[in-house]
């Protein structure tokens, strides 16, 4: 069988290549300081191609690189946000939030936390699955409880910041061991940034990454949830307040969190019709061509 291989995106940790129209080859240098691909492959196998989780087909290692063959996906939520001038409607954000909460809940049900929740790690499918939002890039994922007994990891401190500081939870900045609540707080920051365009701690100018992380942390502590959610429907404040109040080993009320955004859509008479802002923009562009 002959396959045409083309590079489709250059990711931070490894190149991504597309084969035909349905499969992607993801590669990583085995000599990388923090290799992640093998862990990610094993986690994808555990997640077993559930809705919103890409299927993996094989993994191999050679001298110069290691690779993983998986389902090819479409554009990331981060990309869609950028082409919409970095501002999304409440309808689009609510539709995304409901799917994103489903993906995060499923990962947590399988005893793992993501630890790197951000827009580019949520990617839409292709073809008949173009409306489905996938959660990807599990290289920083960590098991938070025993797979069989479901015994939760112990509470620890003096941990570093894993993932992007912009979306990290308050407890991550305090050096607290991450758990389910931290993924959900990060998700809240993502949703607020999508609908407001940016977060209060974005755009800080510093010399080093260390200094930037400190300034971001300081800004998060100084910004009240009321200020953070100002001019947004009350559902955002309720979500963030409930998430911030979760205990380290508490099972989050995922259904309640989803219901907030479902209720928001009902209250605003918004249809869950998958007409995202970028879809409308593209349709309008074609109509005017």
TrEMBL record:
<dbReference type="GO" id="GO:0005524">
    <property type="term" value="F:ATP binding"/>
</dbReference>
<dbReference type="Pfam" id="PF00069">
    <property type="entry name" value="Pkinase"/>
</dbReference>
<dbReference type="InterPro" id="IPR011009">
    <property type="entry name" value="Kinase-like_dom_sf"/>
</dbReference>
<feature type="domain" description="Protein kinase">
    <location>
        <begin position="1"/>
        <end position="262"/>
    </location>
</feature>
<dbReference type="InterPro" id="IPR008271">
    <property type="entry name" value="Ser/Thr_kinase_AS"/>
</dbReference>
<dbReference type="GO" id="GO:0004674">
    <property type="term" value="F:protein serine/threonine kinase activity"/>
</dbReference>
<protein>
    <recommendedName>
        <fullName>non-specific serine/threonine protein kinase</fullName>
        <ecNumber>2.7.11.1</ecNumber>
    </recommendedName>
</protein>
<keyword id="KW-0808">Transferase</keyword>
<dbReference type="InterPro" id="IPR050235">
    <property type="entry name" value="CK1_Ser-Thr_kinase"/>
</dbReference>
<keyword id="KW-0418">Kinase</keyword>
<dbReference type="InterPro" id="IPR000719">
    <property type="entry name" value="Prot_kinase_dom"/>
</dbReference>
């Amino acid at each position: 069988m002959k396959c045409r291989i083309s590079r489709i995106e250059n990711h931070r940790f490894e190149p991504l290549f597309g084969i035909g129209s349905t499969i992607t080859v993801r590669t990583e240098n085995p000599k990388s300081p923090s290799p992640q691909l093998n862990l990610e492959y094993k986690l994808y196998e555990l997640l077993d191609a559930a809705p919103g989780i890409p299927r993996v087909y094989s993994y191999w290692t050679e001298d110069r690189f290691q690779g993983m063959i998986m389902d090819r996906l479409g554009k990331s939520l981060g990309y869609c946000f950028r082409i919409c001038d970095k501002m999304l409607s409440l309808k689009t954000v609510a539709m995304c939030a409901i799917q994103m909460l489903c993906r995060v809940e499923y990962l947590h049900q399988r005893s793992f936390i993501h630890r790197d929740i951000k827009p580019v790690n949520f990617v839409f499918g292709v073809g008949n699955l173009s409306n489905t939002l996938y959660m990807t890039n599990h290289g920083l994922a960590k098991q938070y409880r025993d797979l069989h007994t479901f015994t939760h990891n112990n509470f620890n401190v003096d941990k570093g910041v894993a993932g992007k500081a912009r979306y990290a939870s308050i407890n991550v900045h305090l050096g607290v061991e991450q758990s389910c609540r931290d993924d959900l707080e990060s998700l809240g920051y993502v949703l607020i940034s999508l609908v407001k365009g940016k977060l209060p701690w974005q755009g800080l100018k510093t010399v080093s990454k260390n200094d930037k992380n400190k300034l971001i942390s300081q800004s998060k502590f100084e910004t009240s949830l009321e200020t953070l959610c100002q001019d947004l429907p009350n559902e955002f404040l309720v979500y963030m307040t409930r998430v911030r109040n979760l205990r380290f080993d508490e099972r989050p009320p995922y259904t309640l969190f989803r219901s907030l955004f479902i209720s928001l859509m009902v209250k605003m008479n918004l249809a869950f019709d998958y007409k995202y802002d970028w879809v409308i923009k593209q349709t309008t562009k074609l109509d005017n061509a």
